[in-house]
Amino acid sequence: MTTTLTEIKHLPTLALLVCCEYLAIFKKTVAMHEVFLCRVAAHPILRKDLNFHVFLEYNQDLSVRGKNKKEKLEDFFKNMVKSADGVIVSGVKDVDDFFEHERTFLVEYHNRVKDASAKSDKMTRSHKNVADDYNRIGSSLYALGTQDSTDICKFFLKVSELFDKTRKIEARVSADEDLKLSDLLKYYLRESQAAKDLLYRRSRSLVDYENANKALDKARAKNKDVLQAETTQQICCQKFEKISESAKQELIDFKTRRVAAFRKNLVELAELELKHAKGNLQLLQSCLAVLNGDT
Amino acid sequence: MAAEREPPPLGEARPADFEELEEGEDLFTSTVSTLESSPSSPEPASLPAEDLSTNSNGPKPAEIMLDDDREDLFAEEPILAQLVGMLNRRGREQSSTEATEEVSLDSPERDPILSPEPTPAITPVTPTTLVAPRMESKSVTAPVIFDRSREEIEEEANGDLFDIEINVSDPEKVGDGMNAYMAYRVTTKTSLSMFHKNEFSVKRRFSDFLGLHSKLATKYMHIGYIVPPAPEKSIVGMTKVKVGKEDSSSTEFVEKRRAALERYLQRTVKHPTLLQDPDLRQFLESSELPRAVNTQALSGAGILRMVNKAADAVNKMTIKMNESDAWFEEKQQQFENLDQQLRKLHASVEALVCHRKELSANIAAFAKSAAMLGNSEDHTALSRALSQLAEVEEKIDQLHQEQAFADFYVFAELLGDYIRLIAAVKGVFDHRMKCWQKWQDAQVTLQKKREAEAKLQLANKPDKLQQAKDEIKEEIEEWETKVQQGEKDFEQISKTIRKEVGRFEKERVKDFKTVIIEYLESLVQTQQQLIKYWEAFLPEAKAIA
Questions:
Q1: What is the complex's ipTM, to 2 decimals?
Q2: Are A119 and B365 within 8 A, CB to CB?
């Protein structure tokens, strides 16, 4: 298909399109980073971390090295071991009701967030496709308008303009949904995974503690290496109690943060959807007024 | 005498042939055979002298369909009654005294075989033209009369408030298995006096519509009228329906077809000339319609159609016309551009329909997922909010489905209709080219005959000479007539096309404006609903504590 003059004239909007997309992605990334840093800063222990301080204050290039192949491989194996172990460990029933409830809750919640996150992604992409179609329709109408010899050409041009503007709004709807909904769900997908990991570590430590208890009993029975067994048992006990305490707090915080984040995002989502729908409506109505006035 | 000169192909005594003949291409062979078999075929040549003299160039009265039912009908129409009177007064010996709008089947395209007769006319549709040439001396005033009569008819129609409303409804499956078909109810509401009643309805099947279009196209396209195309056949779609799949895709298909048939009829009756056509009237009124078997794709006629289409395409490429009228060249280019642009737009709108349906499905999936998430959320307020979100999204999904429906039926289908209409317009331009070609060919042949005559003058065989000279003189006269007729036909078709194109453009502007405004209004509705839904949700989201 040969590119006609009308299509060339429409090129500036293509450049605008690319700009808009870039801005949308940029906005997203910035938001994610902000959330991350705020969380670290709010954490009682992490906020004191030296790395964090350096990150915030060092006014020159940090020269962060990415993980090399060896480290990536190590991570991979660690994950494998962890998930295998996790299966074993999760079989252990917990005495503590709180943690038992949390575990059941988290497993289900995690799966459902995963599903919701995936569906939300698909939804956002579909919205974007519709916006792209509006763009193509707008340029086709523009071409029709510039080539037509009858008095309908003004009509076509006006409608083409409408589609261009409405497309921008639709694209923003898609971007906002992405930001407020998809990203939220993605974030909590990872958060719930992190919470699950925490529970795993606690269960691991519980298993270690119970094993240490058994070893101590055995040592006492045999009257051999009792002191060593006692020390090990005590360390395990301390570890377990410490992790239980901080885990409890973390999980309670997790719930609070989750509720707050959902609230914030859902409210903002609704407000943005309203804003865009009203914007669209106004565009459509003013265009209709002009078209009806003409005919 | 009237009875003897039975118009060969159209008599009701031959129902089988009748159907055959309504196929444009079949006309050709059948007309030949029936003319040959008819004892009265040489008759036109032996018409009373008075007629010949006034008739040599003018349009011959059409081979008219003897339809006794129609006699009364025509008596109702004032103009037609006038014509009937006029024709009767002339004491015509032909049975073709009934003025109908039937175009002569011996149309110019079929001329080569029928050449023994004086060239029959491209009889334009309206009755008055049958009379006109006889009233005036053989001049090219016929077209003028034609115009006047067209306008008269239009005025007549306007006087009747041009009021006719057609609905296609109640698709109903008839029969079983592969012989099953859908019957549609066609309801007409009108105050036009040409119809027997003011409100009536009939049952028609898809092939009936195709048959109607075929008849109209045969009669009017080659003289320059833009006949609205019928909806397309769909073997896949129909097979599903026949097989009895009661799923949403087959109901969608039936609905799409019903809407298309309705638009087709509405467009056809809007055309003032086509509205006068008896076939159209029969289609709308008669409870029984002879089955248009030859519209089937795989019938003998169907194959002949395809062959002829191919032949036409080849011919089009080889005709190099000297366009003396810039208007036609300009218009053809415009329609070419319009065609391209509409196709692009149509493709974009169809993509929109597709994506919106996808969006709707994805929203529905998300809604379910959000509901599940809400269920597993143990914070009560958040859980409730998530359930509300799921409900909102479900409603929005419905909304998008409805919008997709509007995208399609309002916008996409209109574009599809116009793409097919433009193909019909291009067809009419092609017919004009063929007409021109015919005229040119006649001129060439005339030239050859004249050269032959000149040669004969110089030849030296006195015994054979006189006879040959007489023969050639006759032939030259004949071809002179043909050349004049060809020129006339060409001017006629050019004039008709100009008018038709003007009308088409007006209709197009009106149609597009109406449809686009309707479409935008559907978008407005969607946005208004969206606002309602999100406004209802916002307090729920804020209530999370």
A1: 0.80
A2: yes
